[in-house]
Amino acid sequence: MSAPVRVRFAPSPTGYLHVGGARTALFNWLYARHHGGKFILRIEDTDRARHNEAAVQVIYDGLRWLGLDWDEGPQAGGEFGPYFQSEREAIYQRYFDQLNAAGHLYDDGGAWRFRFQREVVEVDDLICGKVAFDFGNIEIMPDMTIRRPDGSWIFHFVNVVDDIEMQMTHVIRGEDHLSNTPKHIQLYQALGAAPPRFGHIPLILNKDGSKMSKRDQGASITSYIEAGYAPEAVLNYFCLLGWSPKDDSEILPREEIIARFDLANVNRKGAQFDLAKCDWFNSQYIQQMPMSRYLELVQPWLEKAGIYADAAALEPVLALEKMKVTHLREVPDRISFFFTEDYAFDPAAVEKSLRNPGTLERLAQLSEAYASVTPFDAPTIEAKLKELATTLAVKPAEFIHPARVAVSGRSVGPSLYHMLEVLGRDRVLARLQRTRERFAA
RNA sequence: GGCGCUAUCGUCUAGAGGCCUAGGACACUGCCCUCUCAAGGCGGGGACACGGGUUCGAAUCCCGUUAGCGCUACCA
User: Fold this and answer.
1) What is the pTM of this model?
2) In the 42-101 stretch of chain A, whose C-beta falls under 7 Å of nucleic acid strand B?
3) Is the peptide bond before A414 cis (omega within 30 degrees of 0)?
């Protein structure tokens, strides 16, 4: 029986969480959850200049938003801490001394270099397979600096030391580290430690195949939060970048992804990022999620827009447009006219539907018919409108379009009859009345 | 330059020698449904980078070329 799985996500606090990083965290998390192991968060802030609370907070926020909970790390504790590299100085010094005592290091103008064994090192990667690297030529594989003249540490060294100290069993990281791996393996060997298993996952590229940079759309996890994505949708989309369940399913619940995830079916090819497909996942998730979850996700957006209403008032309104929403941030604008009598009239809609001769008369006729219709529900309202149209020998559209603009101020919106039902008779009649007065001149 | 990884529709992918006249999804597009906008339904166009092998047979195996990406830091 092999040791329980221990994997980690080890970001540098740069002030934002990149999709590539988030996807690396996700695959590590999935691997841990699938195997019942531990997922550890370690902050690689050796460069103290870049360390600051806000930058670290962005990482916490991004991971939590995606639902990637860590078993050990900052704010979670654990027996292998501290989990900030900036607080592990004594440990690094100890390993440095060990390496130095064994003759693996030499001083090179104040910087300390690790002397490689001049041999072939094979990496047996869980995703890429066996890859051999030849350290035979010192000219093309120079020894590696692990400590700067000012005493600060180089990534390769502290990364390996921490992985040893924290007893990582697997290192799942971006493919950009594949070429670094043989160097790390040499470090493990010099330190007398057994290397973990490695798995290098393909990189996430831009829409045009170039490397995704900070500025690119969709590059930062914060941008998903701010654009109104549902985390479950984004998580699902990210999983499918480089991993496939191997059948045609795409919308996969988190639990099923955990159950089916395996490094063996992670691709080796870099995946280009397609925000349009991410949008599709989002709209699918919104469409299918229960109203309670939808309400929860939409609430912050409503508050931001100054729309306050209790769930009982909100739910029927939200239900009208739920299947049309792509980004949660659209919601307030779609439903704002339900919560104020001072809704704005779209000039183009007014021009198109309220200015025609006889239109206001139609609204009056509709008001009269609706004053007594019972019950005031969609089917009955619809039947009544059609009956009225038939009686007056005009097309239903002669009522429908003006009525839509009259009660909502716009030409685009929910199904008219359902919208009227949710608005309720009193508000409908009042809105029709006011619209007639307003546009009477 | 050296070393490494990769190479199926525009994109994400299925495909582990015959099931492939290459399947699904997004995007695009035609039609249907329809009170608007969506959603949904039914269609359409669209790919095995190229060249050599191996084999009765290759998208699938091998070699080469080309292209993309990564590493080659006293960045992480």
Assistant:
1) 0.93
2) 44, 46-47
3) no
